[in-house]
Amino acid sequence: MTKMIFVNLPVKELQASVKFYEALGMKNNPQFSDDSAACMVWSDTIYIMLLTHDRWRTFTTRPIPSADSSEVMLALSCDDREMVDRLNELSEQHGGTADINPKQDLGFMYNRNVADLDGHVWEMFWMDPSAMQTS
Fold it and tell me: Does residue 18 contact residue 127 with C-beta atoms inside 8 Å?
């Protein structure tokens, strides 16, 4: 079986968050979505589960982090530098926060960090595959 990842995120306003992630190019998978959760597809193996706060609380009693804190930074690879920049711009145009950390350009790797509507941090990055060392 192919390894997959489902990232679960608590969100205040489910439909607003769905629109935000759709603006970044993700598709909603209705098979795993209802009025308390939405499954947003980044790739064949990466899924972002947006969960209302009530739904989130069925999984854990731990407190939901506030929008101005960082519980984790999630990194998503992009096809090129232009895609990194485009996602950064789209994030801000659709209610997120662009460049929450300084842009990083190391030549072989380029990244920009955005926050979604609830403050979840995403590192959009591109890396030159030819610069990666093989063992």
Answer: no
1-64: CATH topology: 2,3-Dihydroxybiphenyl 1,2-Dioxygenase; domain 1 (3.10.180)
Pairwise CA distance, residues 75 & 63, whole Å: 23
Nearest-angstrom CA–CA distance, 28 and 61: 27
Whether 126 contacts 77, CB under 8 Å: yes
Q: Where are the alpha helices (DSSP H) in 24-131?
A: 53-56, 81-93
Band (50; pLDDT cuts 50, 70, 90): very high
**Separation of alpha carbons 15 and 10, rounded Å:** 13
The answer on pLDDT for 67 being more than 90 is no
Q: What is the 3-state secondary structure of 6-19?
A: EEEEEECCHHHHHH
14-36 confidence digits (pLDDT tens): 999 999 999 999 999 999 999 99
Which tokens hold the place of 9?
């995120």
DSSP 73-97: EEEEE-SSHHHHHHHHHHHHHTT-B
